[in-house]
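Now read the record:
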Amino acid sequence: MKTNGMILLVCLMTMSVCCPALSAEKQVHYTLKNLCRAANETAETIRIAEDDVKIARQDKLRARSVLIPRATVFGSYTKYKDTGIFTPDTAVGGSG
């Protein structure tokens, strides 16, 4: 709601600067859509607010990532080289 008011204010200011009492034969017609688009492209406070929204969305995703379950895998195996030897080769692997 606050952004809509800012957009309207910027549009009105743009119209007052761009359309000072022009002569009748050389009057330029602006549409509200074109003025709002121009105001959005150049307004610094609107860009800062858009960046804040992007940051908030990233923070929300980061907070949700804690809720995602994680899988941890761990395993080991024993391989005997010779049946007459009692000392096995052991390998351990894991992923976390």
The chain is about 50% helix and 15% strand. The first strand starts at residue 73 and ends at 79. The chain has a mean pLDDT of 76. The beta strands are 73-79, 89-95.
